[in-house]
């Protein structure tokens, strides 16, 4: 059994990790040093989208990521 995405993230950050589910993106959300992060898995791959832009814009970017 593999470790979950949240278990992978926990040692790297000391901030609150919140479950995230919006616009087809299901994963985890946290903020650190003025940046917002969304980490999620899709089609067997792990992704992290982050930036200092509005969280809704980060969600739009994450929702557009697909595996070919």
Low-confidence stretches at least 5 residues in length (pLDDT < 50)? none
Radius of gyration: 12 Å
Mean pLDDT figure: 81
The overall strand count is 4
Folded structure, characterized:
The chain has 68 residues and is an alpha+beta fold. It is 21% helix and 41% strand. The protein contains two helices and four strands. The chain has a four-stranded antiparallel β-sheet with strand order 1-2-3-4, with helices on one face. A hairpin with a 2-residue loop joins strand 3 (35-42) and strand 4 (45-51). The longest helix has 9 residues, at 55-63.
Can you give keywords for this protein?
about 70 residues; alpha+beta; 2 helices; about 20% helix; globular
Write the layout of secondary structure elements.
Blueprint: H1 5-9, E1 18-22, E2 25-32, E3 35-42, E4 45-51, H2 55-63
Antiparallel strand pairs: 1-2, 2-3, 3-4
Nutshell version of this structure?
By secondary structure, this protein is of the alpha+beta class. The chain has helices at 5-9, 55-63, and strands spanning 18-22, 25-32, 35-42, 45-51.
């Amino acid at each position: 059994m593999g470790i979950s995405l949240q278990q992978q993230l926990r040692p790297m950050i000391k901030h609150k990790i919140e479950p995230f589910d919006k616009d087809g993106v299901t994963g985890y959300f946290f903020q650190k040093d003025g940046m917002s992060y969304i980490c999620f898995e899709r089609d067997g791959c792990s992704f992290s989208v982050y930036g200092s832009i509005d969280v809704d814009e980060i969600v739009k970017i994450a929702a557009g990521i697909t595996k070919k």
